[in-house]
Protein backbone atom coordinates (compact mmCIF):
# COMPACT_ATOMS: atom_id res chain seq x y z
CA UNK A 1 0.00 0.00 0.00
CA UNK A 2 1.39 3.41 -0.94
CA UNK A 3 1.10 6.57 1.11
CA UNK A 4 1.41 10.31 0.88
CA UNK A 5 5.03 11.12 1.75
CA UNK A 6 4.84 14.76 2.81
CA UNK A 7 2.67 17.85 3.18
CA UNK A 8 -0.69 18.43 4.84
CA UNK A 9 -1.89 14.88 4.13
CA UNK A 10 1.54 13.31 4.81
CA UNK A 11 1.32 9.74 6.11
CA UNK A 12 -2.17 9.14 4.66
CA UNK A 13 -2.38 5.63 3.20
CA UNK A 14 -3.67 5.27 -0.35
CA UNK A 15 -5.66 2.43 -1.84
CA UNK A 16 -3.84 0.55 -4.62
CA UNK A 17 -5.33 -0.70 -7.88
CA UNK A 18 -5.91 -4.48 -7.62
CA UNK A 19 -4.21 -6.77 -10.16
CA UNK A 20 -1.12 -6.11 -12.23
CA UNK A 21 -2.60 -3.86 -14.92
CA UNK A 22 -1.03 -0.77 -13.32
CA UNK A 23 2.57 -0.21 -12.26
CA UNK A 24 2.78 1.86 -9.07
CA UNK A 25 5.68 4.28 -8.70
CA UNK A 26 7.90 2.98 -5.90
CA UNK A 27 8.35 5.10 -2.76
CA UNK A 28 12.06 5.45 -3.57
CA UNK A 29 11.35 6.88 -7.03
CA UNK A 30 8.54 9.04 -5.67
CA UNK A 31 10.75 10.54 -2.97
CA UNK A 32 13.51 11.34 -5.49
CA UNK A 33 11.00 12.77 -7.97
CA UNK A 34 9.34 15.06 -5.44
CA UNK A 35 12.66 16.15 -3.98
CA UNK A 36 13.63 17.36 -7.46
CA UNK A 37 10.28 19.04 -8.15
CA UNK A 38 10.37 20.83 -4.78
CA UNK A 39 13.92 22.06 -5.49
CA UNK A 40 12.59 23.50 -8.77
CA UNK A 41 9.65 25.07 -6.88
CA UNK A 42 7.06 23.79 -9.35
CA UNK A 43 4.46 22.30 -6.97
CA UNK A 44 3.22 25.18 -4.82
CA UNK A 45 -0.04 26.60 -6.28
CA UNK A 46 0.40 24.50 -9.45
CA UNK A 47 -2.39 23.25 -11.69
CA UNK A 48 -1.49 19.57 -12.02
CA UNK A 49 -2.53 16.98 -14.60
CA UNK A 50 -1.86 13.31 -13.77
CA UNK A 51 -2.35 11.22 -16.94
CA UNK A 52 -2.67 7.40 -16.86
CA UNK A 53 -3.13 8.09 -13.15
CA UNK A 54 -3.45 4.53 -11.81
CA UNK A 55 -4.14 5.06 -8.09
CA UNK A 56 -3.48 8.80 -8.51
CA UNK A 57 -0.55 8.77 -6.08
CA UNK A 58 1.61 11.30 -7.98
CA UNK A 59 -1.15 13.88 -8.41
CA UNK A 60 -2.34 13.32 -4.83
CA UNK A 61 1.18 13.91 -3.51
CA UNK A 62 1.22 17.33 -5.20
CA UNK A 63 -2.16 18.17 -3.63
CA UNK A 64 -0.75 17.41 -0.18
CA UNK A 65 2.27 19.63 -0.96
CA UNK A 66 0.28 22.70 -1.96
CA UNK A 67 -0.88 22.29 -5.57
CA UNK A 68 -3.90 24.49 -6.31
CA UNK A 69 -5.77 22.06 -8.57
CA UNK A 70 -5.15 18.40 -9.47
CA UNK A 71 -6.89 16.43 -12.22
CA UNK A 72 -6.44 12.64 -12.33
CA UNK A 73 -7.19 11.09 -15.74
CA UNK A 74 -7.69 7.33 -15.99
CA UNK A 75 -9.69 4.99 -18.24
CA UNK A 76 -9.69 1.58 -16.49
CA UNK A 77 -12.83 1.25 -14.30
CA UNK A 78 -10.99 -0.32 -11.31
CA UNK A 79 -8.33 2.40 -11.38
CA UNK A 80 -10.98 5.15 -11.70
CA UNK A 81 -12.74 3.77 -8.62
CA UNK A 82 -9.46 3.76 -6.67
CA UNK A 83 -8.65 7.31 -7.86
CA UNK A 84 -12.07 8.50 -6.66
CA UNK A 85 -11.62 6.81 -3.27
CA UNK A 86 -8.12 8.30 -2.81
CA UNK A 87 -9.16 11.75 -4.07
CA UNK A 88 -12.03 11.87 -1.55
CA UNK A 89 -9.63 10.92 1.25
CA UNK A 90 -7.10 13.61 0.32
CA UNK A 91 -9.74 16.30 -0.25
CA UNK A 92 -11.10 15.55 3.23
CA UNK A 93 -7.58 15.84 4.72
CA UNK A 94 -7.07 19.15 2.89
CA UNK A 95 -10.59 20.38 3.76
CA UNK A 96 -10.86 21.54 0.14
CA UNK A 97 -11.89 20.08 -3.24
CA UNK A 98 -8.40 20.27 -4.76
CA UNK A 99 -8.45 16.86 -6.52
CA UNK A 100 -10.91 15.76 -9.19
CA UNK A 101 -11.07 12.59 -11.30
CA UNK A 102 -11.93 12.31 -15.00
CA UNK A 103 -12.63 8.93 -16.58
CA UNK A 104 -11.64 8.80 -20.24
CA UNK A 105 -8.94 8.13 -22.83
CA UNK A 106 -5.97 10.39 -22.25
CA UNK A 107 -5.78 11.68 -25.85
CA UNK A 108 -9.52 12.43 -25.92
CA UNK A 109 -9.35 14.31 -22.62
CA UNK A 110 -6.31 16.29 -23.80
CA UNK A 111 -8.07 17.21 -27.06
CA UNK A 112 -10.96 18.66 -25.05
CA UNK A 113 -8.53 21.14 -23.43
CA UNK A 114 -7.69 22.99 -26.64
CA UNK A 115 -9.60 24.40 -29.60
CA UNK A 116 -8.88 22.23 -32.67
CA UNK A 117 -9.49 25.15 -35.06
CA UNK A 118 -7.38 27.84 -33.39
CA UNK A 119 -5.09 25.42 -31.48
CA UNK A 120 -5.53 27.74 -28.49
CA UNK A 121 -5.70 26.07 -25.06
CA UNK A 122 -8.96 26.34 -23.11
CA UNK A 123 -7.14 25.14 -19.99
CA UNK A 124 -3.44 25.02 -19.09
CA UNK A 125 -1.35 23.11 -16.57
CA UNK A 126 1.88 23.87 -14.69
CA UNK A 127 2.88 20.26 -14.00
CA UNK A 128 1.99 17.13 -15.97
CA UNK A 129 2.74 13.53 -14.97
CA UNK A 130 2.68 10.79 -17.59
CA UNK A 131 3.17 7.20 -16.48
CA UNK A 132 1.76 5.36 -19.50
CA UNK A 133 1.44 1.57 -19.58
CA UNK A 134 4.53 -0.07 -21.08
CA UNK A 135 2.59 -1.48 -24.09
CA UNK A 136 2.02 2.12 -25.28
CA UNK A 137 4.22 2.45 -28.37
CA UNK A 138 6.80 5.19 -28.83
CA UNK A 139 4.66 6.60 -31.66
CA UNK A 140 1.52 6.70 -29.48
CA UNK A 141 3.53 8.37 -26.72
CA UNK A 142 4.78 10.99 -29.21
CA UNK A 143 1.18 11.80 -30.25
CA UNK A 144 0.15 12.18 -26.59
CA UNK A 145 3.18 14.37 -25.82
CA UNK A 146 2.28 16.64 -28.73
CA UNK A 147 -1.20 17.10 -27.23
CA UNK A 148 0.29 17.68 -23.76
CA UNK A 149 2.58 20.38 -25.20
CA UNK A 150 -0.48 22.38 -26.31
CA UNK A 151 -1.98 22.67 -22.81
CA UNK A 152 1.09 23.78 -20.87
CA UNK A 153 1.56 27.03 -19.00
CA UNK A 154 4.67 29.01 -19.90
CA UNK A 155 6.96 27.63 -17.16
CA UNK A 156 5.42 24.15 -16.99
CA UNK A 157 7.22 20.89 -16.23
CA UNK A 158 6.38 17.52 -17.80
CA UNK A 159 7.45 14.27 -16.13
CA UNK A 160 7.39 11.03 -18.15
CA UNK A 161 7.95 7.72 -16.35
CA UNK A 162 9.02 4.76 -18.49
CA UNK A 163 10.90 1.49 -18.26
CA UNK A 164 14.64 2.09 -18.07
CA UNK A 165 14.88 -0.07 -21.24
CA UNK A 166 12.58 2.28 -23.21
CA UNK A 167 14.18 4.81 -25.57
CA UNK A 168 14.00 8.53 -24.90
CA UNK A 169 10.55 9.88 -25.83
CA UNK A 170 10.23 11.72 -29.14
CA UNK A 171 9.67 15.27 -27.94
CA UNK A 172 7.43 17.55 -30.02
CA UNK A 173 9.05 20.69 -31.44
CA UNK A 174 7.70 22.94 -28.67
CA UNK A 175 8.90 20.73 -25.79
CA UNK A 176 12.53 20.16 -24.78
CA UNK A 177 14.21 17.73 -22.41
CA UNK A 178 15.43 19.19 -19.13
CA UNK A 179 16.89 16.07 -17.50
CA UNK A 180 16.51 12.33 -17.04
CA UNK A 181 17.35 9.95 -14.21
CA UNK A 182 17.38 6.17 -13.92
CA UNK A 183 16.16 4.39 -10.78
CA UNK A 184 16.56 0.63 -11.25
CA UNK A 185 13.87 -0.49 -13.70
CA UNK A 186 12.43 3.02 -13.99
CA UNK A 187 13.62 6.11 -15.84
CA UNK A 188 12.14 9.57 -15.33
CA UNK A 189 12.29 12.13 -18.14
CA UNK A 190 11.75 15.82 -17.42
CA UNK A 191 10.80 18.34 -20.11
CA UNK A 192 9.64 21.95 -20.39
CA UNK A 193 8.13 24.15 -23.10
CA UNK A 194 10.61 25.69 -25.53
CA UNK A 195 10.95 29.37 -24.62
CA UNK A 196 10.39 31.57 -27.68
From TrEMBL:
A GO molecular function held by the record: 16S rRNA (guanine(966)-N(2))-methyltransferase activity
EC number: 2.1.1.171
UniProt keyword Methyltransferase present: yes
UniProt KW DNA-binding keyword: no
One Pfam family it belongs to: Cons_hypoth95
InterPro entries attached to this UniProt entry: DNA_methylase_N6_adenine_CS, RNA_MeTrfase_RsmD, SAM-dependent_MTases_sf
Enzyme class: transferase
Alphabetical UniProt keywords: Methyltransferase, Transferase
Protein's name according to its UniProt entry: 16S rRNA (Guanine(966)-N(2))-methyltransferase RsmD
Organism whose genome encodes this protein: Glutamicibacter bergerei
Amino acid sequence: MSRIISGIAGGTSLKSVPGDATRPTTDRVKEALFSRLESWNVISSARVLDLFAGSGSLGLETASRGARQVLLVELAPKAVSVCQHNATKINEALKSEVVSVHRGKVDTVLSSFFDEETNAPKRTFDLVFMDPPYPLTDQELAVTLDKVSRVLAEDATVVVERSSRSPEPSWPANLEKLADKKYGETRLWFAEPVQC
